[in-house]
Design goal:
Structural class: alpha+beta
Order of helices and strands: HHEHEEEEEHHEHEEEEEEEEEHEHEEEH
Number of strands: 20
Helix content: 25-40%
Radius of gyration: 30 Å
Strand content: 25-35%
Largest sheet: 12 strands, mixed
Length: 472
C-alpha cells in the first residue's frame, strides 16, 4: 500500500515535471510558429494581410488644416510691424482613400513599384466652416519674387505687373483657393509663359505620388516596405548625393519584430525628405498593445547640432550661419520657392524665428508627430503627422509691395495634422488573427509550466512527507 502510494506520488511528480518541461519546450516552438506566420503575412504579395492593408489603407485618414489669418496686414506691409495671426480651423479633408495603381512586381530584385493617387474630400461635419471661408494670408506669388528673380532689373520689370494687378504683400483668399490653387492676377499679366496657378498643395487632385519602388520582403523580411527608389515630380536629386538619400518606409508599416531601441525611418513626400522616430511610450490601442514612436526635436535641429540637416541650410545670412533651428528649407524641391517646414507654431524652434509673429502657442501634446506601431507585425495602427508650412519673405526695394519691410519674416501660412486610426472592425480582426492567437499561445505555455511546476512540487512534498512517516 505504501509502495503504491509512493509510486503514485512519484508518477504525479513526473507528470508535473513533464508538463513543465513541455511548456518550456512549447515556448521556443511557439515563438518559432509566431515568427514564421508573421514573416509570411508581412510579405507584400497577393493574399497576405500586409498586402491587403498596403494596397488600400483600412483606416480612414484625415488631413486637418488650420489657417493663420493675418489680423494687421497694412501695419506689416507699411511699417514692418510684428505679424499678428489668429489660428482658424480645423478644416478637415479625407485623404489616402484611393488604392495604389500601376502595381508592378519584379521577382529578380524582390521589389514592387506603384503610384499613390492623390485626392481630398472635404468633410463639413469635421470642420469649423466651409471651403468658401475667407482668410487674409500671405500673397504667395509676390513673396516668392525676390527669391525666384534676384536680378534687380528683372524685379523692376516684374514690379510693373504687380502694380498693374493691384497685388500686395497680403491677400484675401478662400480656403479652397489657398489649398488647391487659384489663378494669380499678377502672374496672369506676364507676357511670357509662366505657371499662373498658385496654391499651397497645388497640384494635388488627380495627381499621383510616386513612382515608388519598395522591397516586398520576400527574400529578406527586414527590408519589407523599405523604399528602394522614389521618382516624383519633386525628385531629391536637386540636392547633393549625400542629401539625396531616401531612408525607410512610407510609415504605413515597418519590418516586423520591432524593439524599443529601434529607430524608425520613413520618407515624407510632403516634406521632401526622410525623418526618423524614436520610442516614446507603450500604449493600448483598442485592446492592441502598441509602441508609440515620436519625432524628436533633433530632426529640426541646426546643422551644428545635427549634421544630417546641413543640406537644408542653403544660405548663411537669414539662418545666422546655420545656427538657427526649428525650420527646414525645402525650396530645392519646390521649384525654388522660399518654402520652409517646421513643427506647428514653431515648436522647438529658435526664439528669433517666432519673434516677429504674435498669436502662436506651441504645445508639445498637440503639435508633436507620432506613430503607433504594433511591434510584432510592424504595422502602423495609428499616426499623427503634424507639419507647418511657412514662407520666407525678404524686403524688396524694387518690389513695391515689399519695400516697406525692414526685416525678414518667416510667415506661417498653415499647419496640418494628418491622422489615421485603425477602425473598430479592423481592430477586432487584428486582435483575432494576430494578438489574440499570440496571447492564447502564451497563456497555454504559462499554464502548462505553472501547472507542471505546482504538480511537481506538491507531489514531491507529499512523497517526502510519506517517506518520513514510514521511517518513523
Amino acid at each position: 500500500m505504501g509502495c503504491d502510494r509512493n509510486c503514485g506520488l512519484i508518477a504525479g511528480a513526473v507528470i508535473g515535471a513533464v508538463l513543465a518541461v513541455f511548456g518550456g519546450i512549447l515556448m521556443p516552438v511557439g515563438d518559432m510558429l509566431i515568427e514564421k506566420t508573421v514573416k509570411k503575412e508581412a510579405v507584400l504579395e497577393e493574399g497576405t494581410i500586409a498586402f491587403k492593408n498596403w494596397v488600400k489603407t483600412g483606416a480612414e485618414v484625415y488631413r486637418q488644416v488650420w489657417i493663420f489669418d493675418v489680423q494687421n496686414p497694412e501695419e506689416v506691409a507699411v511699417n514692418s510691424s510684428k505679424i499678428k495671426v489668429k489660428q482658424r480651423g480645423p478644416y478637415t479633408y479625407r485623404v489616402r482613400y484611393l488604392a495604389k495603381e500601376n502595381i508592378m512586381w519584379d521577382s529578380e530584385t524582390h521589389t514592387v513599384s506603384f503610384l499613390q493617387p492623390n485626392g481630398a474630400i472635404f468633410e463639413p461635419s469635421l470642420s469649423v466652416g466651409t471651403e468658401n471661408d475667407t482668410f487674409t494670408v500671405l500673397n504667395l506669388a509676390v513673396a516668392a519674387v525676390p527669391h525666384l528673380y534676384p536680378s534687380a532689373f528683372v524685379q523692376t520689370i516684374v514690379n510693373i505687373f504687380i502694380k498693374k494687378s493691384n497685388s500686395s504683400m497680403f491677400q484675401k483668399r478662400t480656403l479652397k483657393e489657398l489649398l488647391w490653387g487659384y489663378k494669380d492676377p499678377f502672374l496672369n499679366l506676364i507676357p511670357y509663359p509662366v505657371p499662373t496657378t498658385v496654391g499651397v498643395f497645388y497640384p494635388y487632385h488627380n495627381t499621383a505620388d510616386g513612382v515608388y519602388k519598395v522591397f516586398n520582403g520576400k527574400d529578406d523580411i527586414n527590408k519589407v516596405a523599405i523604399i528602394d527608389t522614389y521618382k516624383g515630380k519633386k525628385h531629391l536629386s536637386y540636392w547633393p548625393s549625400y542629401c539625396d538619400m531616401i531612408n525607410g518606409t512610407d510609415a504605413a508599416s515597418f519590418p516586423p519584430f520591432i524593439e524599443k531601441t529601434r529607430i524608425l525611418q520613413f520618407f515624407s513626400s510632403d516634406a521632401c525628405r526622410s525623418f526618423y522616430a524614436v520610442f516614446g511610450a507603450e500604449i493600448n490601442l483598442k485592446g492592441i498593445p502598441v509602441y508609440r514612436f515620436i519625432l524628436p526635436s533633433l530632426v529640426f535641429a541646426s546643422p551644428l547640432e545635427n549634421p544630417d540637416n546641413h543640406c537644408f541650410c542653403t544660405e548663411k545670412i537669414i539662418s545666422k550661419n546655420c545656427t538657427l533651428y526649428g525650420v527646414l528649407d525645402i525650396g530645392k524641391c519646390k521649384d525654388g520657392k522660399p518654402v520652409y517646414i517646421s513643427l506647428p507654431h514653431f515648436l522647438h524652434a529658435s526664439p528669433e524665428i517666432a519673434e516677429p509673429v504674435e498669436g502662436l502657442s506651441p504645445n508639445e501634446e498637440e503639435h508633436t508627430t507620432y506613430l503607433d506601431v504594433e511591434p510584432i507585425t510592424g504595422f502602423t495602427l495609428q499616426f499623427a503627422k503634424r507639419l507647418q508650412i511657412n514662407i520666407l519673405v525678404k524686403p524688396g526695394k524694387r518690389i513695391g509691395a515689399l519695400k516697406g519691410l525692414k526685416q525678414n519674416y518667416m510667415v506661417p501660412v498653415l499647419w496640418l495634422n494628418e491622422t489615421g486610426t485603425i477602425g473598430d472592425e479592423k481592430a477586432e480582426m487584428f486582435r483575432n488573427q494576430v494578438t489574440g492567437k499570440i496571447k492564447l499561445l502564451g497563456l497555454v505555455e504559462m499554464i502548462l509550466i505553472s501547472v507542471g511546476a505546482v504538480m511537481f512540487t506538491a507531489f514531491m512534498i507529499s512523497y517526502c512527507a510519506c517517506r518520513l512517516k514510514s521511517v518513523k
